[in-house]
Amino acid sequence: MDSLTQIVLGGAVAAAIAPAGHRRAALLAGAALGTLPDLDSLPIMLATDDPVVLMTVHRSFSHSLFVLPFVGWLLWWLFRRYGRGRVAEAPRRWFWAIQLALATHPLLDAFTVYGTQLWWPLPAAPTMWSSVFIIDPLYTVWLLVACVVAWFARARPLARHVLLAGLALSSAYLGWSLVAKAMVDREAQRTLAAMGLGDAPRFSVPMPFNTLLWRVVAMTPGGFVEGEYSLVADTGPIAFRGYPSNTQALAEAAGILAVQRLAWFNHGFMKAREREGRLELSDLRMGAEPDYSFVFEVAERDAEGRWQAVPPRQLRLPWEARRRLGPMWRRIWEAPE
User: Fold this and answer.
1) How far apart are CA 49 and CA 296, in angstroms?
2) Strand 241-244 to strand 270-275: parallel, antiparallel, or no bridges (unpaired)?
């Protein structure tokens, strides 16, 4: 999720657990801890300029549920052992405040489609429950309001009540997103089965800033199909559109490390295109045809027509997605003609 959401989630969690007299300190500490896992981008960028590595290593070691408990314990021990402040006064409460402020960060990220390596260093594919968009105001607003009220209410009971209410409402919204996704997936399964694609790999993801309009993509032998479904306006089958992908080139280049890394990271949901003898791979999960957030050039044909690896390059192609926001909002409430 976006940084503001992670900040207010960490702050709300820590402040709800810490003693009432430590409320402001817990809000600040939780905000910092909620940001900490995403700082992995800094050492990764110092270590490499490979965009495929940057994408696929982000949300790995710093988001691992095997790593973060040890980081939390170390921070707690250091503040308890060498600090003379809040942690030493209420060590048990601060232990859990620190642990949960850290752990909720990757768990929330796993609700997005990007992919979070919760079980790093195990080779399991990244977790992507894909039930909320990376920015969703209806999730964030409850936590933001709770943190603001708690900051001014300090040790008063109102602060804890509001924090718990904010956490409950935001969690309920995540629960709703899973219910909404299940409804969309059920309709997608019916439609794809009627098209002879019932067993095709697929994913669903909410469109920006809401959980009412969803995008569904399914892979086909020659490419993929894409469609939208509104939980408000649509009642019938999903209208899928078919798009080509150079699956032959993708198969020929399957031995290239960058191709393997991307296929593992995006669960195989990518589009291949050959342009001027170079292989371009688009991550189908983020964006919509023809605009994708992540497009990489990873290989080129040699004199004999075989694919050879090149230093991966992230392409900045013409991007028109912003113009779709108005039609997207209308599509929530209006079924296609």
Assistant:
1) 13
2) unpaired
CA distance 35 to 231: 33
Q: Please state, in angstroms and rounded to a whole number, the distance separating the CA atoms of residues 249 and 209.
A: 35
**Three-state secondary structure call for residue 204:** strand
Can you name the residues that pair with 216 across neighbouring β-strands?
A: 204, 227
Residue 323 pLDDT > 80: no
Q: Which residues contact 107 (CB under 8 A, 6 or more apart)?
A: 118
Residue type, 317: L
| Separation CA 279–CA 271 (nearest Å) | 10
Cis peptide, bond prior to residue 19, ω within 30 of zero: no
Phi, psi values for residue 82, rounded to 5°: -110, -15
pLDDT at 317: 66
Tokens standing for residue 56: 């696929």
> Residues 81-91, buried b or exposed e (16+ Cβ, 10 A)?
eeeeebbeeee
**Calpha distance 74→167 (Å, rounded):** 26
DSSP for 313-328, written as a single string: EE------GGGGHHHH
How far is the C-alpha of 317 from the C-alpha of 106, rounded, in Å?
Answer: 30
pTM for the full predicted model: 0.93
Q: Which residues contact 310 (CB under 8 A, 6 or more apart)?
A: 278, 297, 298, 299, 300
Which residues lie below 8 Å from residue 57, measured CB to CB, with a gap of 6+? 40, 44
Q: What number of residues does the chain have?
A: 337
Is the CB of residue 284 less than 8 Å from the CB of residue 266? yes
Helices of type H across 199-305: 247-252, 257-265
Per-residue pLDDT of 102-121, as tens digits, reads 999 999 999 999 999 999 99
Query: Six-digit token pair at 13?
Result: 């969690």
CA-CA distance, 199 to 273, in Å (whole number)?
A: 24
User: Using an 8 Å Cβ cutoff, are 63 and 120 in contact?
Assistant: yes
pLDDT tens figures, 201-259: 999 999 999 999 999 999 999 999 999 999 999 999 999 999 999 999 999 999 999 99
As given in the structure block, the two tokens for residue 205 are 């993801």
